Amino acid sequence: MTAQLAEKLERMVNGVAVDKLYSTIDAVKEDPEIARFNFRITNRWVNGGHNRTTVKDFYGANKTHAHETPFVLEADEPALLLGQDQGANPVEHLLNALAACVTSTIVYHAAARGIEIRGVDSRLEGDLDLRGFLGVSNEVPVGYQNIRITFKIDAEAPEKEKELLIEMGKKYSPVYNTLFAGKTSVTVELDKG
Question: Cα 177 from chain centroid?
Answer without folding.
Answer: 11
